[in-house]
Amino acid sequence: MGVLLQQAVNLLQLGSIYALLAIGFSMVYGIVGLVNFAHGDIFMVATYLLFFLATWLFSMTSSSFAVLLASTALAAAAIGLLAMIIERVAYKPLRGAPKVSLVVTSLAVGLLLQHLVLEFLGPNSQRVPRMVPDIKFTVGTVNFEFYQILIILFALFIMLLLNQFIRRTRTGVAMRAVSQDATAASLMGISKDFIISVAFVIGAAIATVGASLYGMAYPIFDPYIGQMINWWSFTAAVLGGIGNIRGAVLGGFLLAAVMVISPMVLPVSSYRDIVAFSVLILVLLVKPSGLLGKRSIQKV
Amino acid sequence: MKIKAIAFTMLLIFVVSAFAGCAPAGGQQGGAADEIRFGLNNEITGDNPVIGASSRKGVDLALEEINAAGGVNVGGKKYKLVVEELDNEFKPESAAAVAQKFADRPDIVAMIGPNDSADVMPTIPIIEKAKLPSITPWATAVDITKNNDYFFRACFTDDFQGAVIAKFAYEDEGARTAAVLYDMSNDYNVGIATIFRKTFEEMGGKVVEFQSYGRGEKDFKSQLTKIIQANPDILLLPNFFAEVPLQAEQARSLGYKGKFIGSDTWGDVELLRLGGEYVEGALWVGHYAVDIASDKAKAFIKAYEAKYNEKPNDIAALNYDAVYLLAKAIENAGKIDRVAIRNGLASIKEYEGVTGNMQFNDTGDPVKTAVIIKIENGAFKYYATAKP
What we know:
The complex is a heterodimer of chains A (about 300) and B (about 400). Chain A has about 300 residues and is mainly alpha-helical. Chain A is built from eleven helices and four strands, in the order ααααβββααααβααα. Chain A has a single domain (about 1-285), classed as ABC transporter involved in vitamin B12 uptake, BtuC. Chain A has helices spanning about 1-30, 40-60, 65-90, 100-120, 145-170, 170-180, 180-185, 190-215, 225-240, 245-265, 270-285, and strands at about 125, 135-140, 140-145, 220. A two-stranded antiparallel sheet of chain A has the order 1-4. Chain A has a two-stranded antiparallel ribbon with strand order 2-3. Chain A is globular. Helices cover about 40% and strands about 20% of the residues of chain B. In chain B, helix 6 (about 160-170) crosses helix 7 (about 185-200). The longest helix of chain B has 20 residues, at about 1-20. The interface of A and B includes residues 7, 13 and 272 of A.
């Protein structure tokens, strides 16, 4: 029983992180129809920025909580700006081009970011400074740490905030309109450029929050972490139905569940990825648009 | 229009810098008549760049010494030994491409590297076909020297290393139950894990959990929870020094109280920097220990510290030895020819390196001792010696 509860804590932690990663990925797809493979590398740049900001802020204050909030907020703003610039420079000129060109461009942007970091910051692994108090709890045989609670609550808060934003605000309504029919939306006076920028900025800002939480749980990083992040967020997003934000959250938790449960029940843990991706194929066979995805009709 | 101008300028910058980066590390191709060139197939970039950097430092120091003493003596004439380094990105496919490049170059007479076992594997058929004698400094996977005549190494093998870890865990640490968490995507990690399990169980111990993960993964909590539930006396982490800290940290966070034990891939201070308190008290098997160095090793450590202002790790020491082995082989060969140098390498029966005495058998593997290192107060300390 204790082991099951322990694995449930592991699952909640991993699922929250996957969900946050998948949200940014899915949202950009929903608005622009772009599978943004630069997402993982934007996450990586965010991690580096957080690392430098936190190190710098720690030289001025010893309050780790203030450093956490300040560095995350500053990094989210900066990375949001970076994403907006990337969109303007690399994606916007290609808006009329075939979707495949955009996907390839996003791959190129990702590699460009990765190699810029490699060139200027070096390939060595780094460790994010600890930004949350090191408190451990033991309930029965279940061990968990303060940062895990923070990850789960913080992720939940961001998801609810985004949900409210999309449902209640004017910009949110406009985003949904563009996602449903961009041409009709612009006929109604919605600035498509503005909405696309907003989607990229929010996606990148959420990735930064994700990076901040990820850094608490897995503090060692290098310029290559973006690749795995891409796989996970892409898989989670597709699993839940790409373009759908609730689907991304569901997909994130489902992926985490497979990752946590399969080593528990399988005799050999090396089957884990085989199971994870078999689940993905099965879901897509039964429901090609993902769990919560809508079937879109291709207009000719 | 403005965006296009910016894009064009950026493109121009990258093209120019790309070409600047492409200049061969060892100067122009071809080389002078009084030079002997060998290739260094090295892990310069990739997710474990310390390997490449240490390797290059060890090679450079050895070359500096050899060439300062006049170079390599071949049939009465002195030649300068020159290295040409190419990056294999710590990827098997790139390592194979680099080996092919060296194989196709008539002026390259031998290859040193790759350092990682998974990178060595795909290069074997290439160097075998090109009859290019090669020495891997650090790759310990058993199969490297099997069924081929051209691969040699400067380090012990996983057969030996895995057994040493198992015996040490059982006899000295008194462990009767053990668990393993290893990266299943690398021949090296799989090799150590398997040999450890076999030896440990033959001795009467029990491996209670045998868990794995894929390259690049960061979350091991599910596997570790299972391991902790089985309550092993000792946990073997035969993984690279940049990965072990996260594994140790997650194990402690989940309430693991037992000991950690590791293999020779723990051998860099990076492990201490990233692992801190989590790896304190852990033990690992290495190629040599700085604090019990022989006179020859002391001289090497002193020269290395003077040149690079840091202590040499196992990788640097083994690369240093590999270059000296190559120089000796060329002198034995008496002519600058790949096959002759291969025979020259095979004719070395014994060599006193900075990583200890090496007795070569017919397979190209040296028989040498291993040391057990303990992590104490955030530093590597010599703990015990394991003889073959």
